[in-house]
Amino acid sequence: MCTNVPTNSFISTFESHFPTRPHHRCTSAVCICIKPSACEMTQQSTGRTEEETEKSENFSHPRHPCPAQLARIEENRRAALQRLAARNVEVPIGESWREKIGAEFTKGYFTELAAFIADERKHFTVYPSPEHVFSWTHMCAIEDVKVVVLGQDPYHGPGQAHGLCFSVPKPTAPPPSLENIYAELSTDMKGFQHPGHGDLSGWAKQGVLLLNAVLTVRAHKPMSHTERGWETFTDAVVWWLSRNLRGLVFLLWGSYAQKKGSIIDRMRHHILQTSHPSPYSADRGFFGCHHFSKTNELLRKSGRKPIDWNAL
């Protein structure tokens, strides 16, 4: 008996790599082939005693799998198909970033992550849209990064997340944390004016990397994509920047960002840290931190052009 489950052309292509043959037991997740039962051989034709025949039935030929085994086989088959599909997914990342960190996309954890995200998008709304997940890599070349702001995970409401932490696309109103960032800027940087929107692309294009630790989220389910592999990937990004560039300014707001920043080489880079700009914690140190003016001072000392925080 042979059970095949070719549900579509992609699965058929996958199965073509695992051809089935009759008269053998196949351990593939795609099919199960069982030998003709030895029970059909009679004692007279074999000359075996009843005891020997019973032993043969118990130990010599494979049994039909039970429903639980079939369910596990089907689960493994679909997981294998998802992993194979994930290997063929083109990651829309900026070319300079691909050259430096592209090896991450070939690793097992990222294959599993891509399969998970693909399955999530089939069943739920996921933010941001696929073309915006890596938008931060298209704002500036990896070698041109000057400042790094570490966030946690994307906004989980409609029309908000677009690949940059703390940022929302026009015309979406700035969320509370971003409003507090603007409030601090207005007291820290003389002449700063509220832009009337929440899109921080203007900073990103000047070399401010606005990087969330987790790059996707299920709609209305904050932190729903944590511990799926994104943290490993973004750690690799931070590690590359820390080891290959010098004089970057890392802005670590809140305990989560500060923990993630533990891999930064503090002998090569500048670390500015305080509380998160959330309304729940901004008054514990974020207000009055002067991180924006301090960042520009550090950039000037290293001979780099300061950030125009008004360019939004």
Note the topology.
Blueprint: H1 9-16, H2 43-46, H3 50-59, H4 67-87, H5 95-101, H6 108-123, E1 126-127, E2 147-151, H7 176-188, H8 201-204, E3 208-212, E4 217-218, H9 230-244, E5 249-253, H10 255-260, E6 270-274, H11 291-301
Parallel strand pairs: 2-3, 2-5, 5-6
Antiparallel strand pairs: 1-4
Helix pairs in contact: 4-6
Verbal overview:
This protein has 312 residues and is an alpha/beta fold. It contains 11 helices and 6 strands. It has helices spanning 9-16, 43-46, 50-59, 67-87, 95-101, 108-123, 176-188, 201-204, 230-244, 255-260, 291-301; strands at residues 126-127, 147-151, 208-212, 217-218, 249-253, 270-274. The strands form 2 sheets. It has a 4-stranded parallel sheet. Helix 4 (67-87) crosses helix 6. The N and C termini lie far apart (66 Å). The model is unreliable at 1-46 and 53-60 (pLDDT under 50).
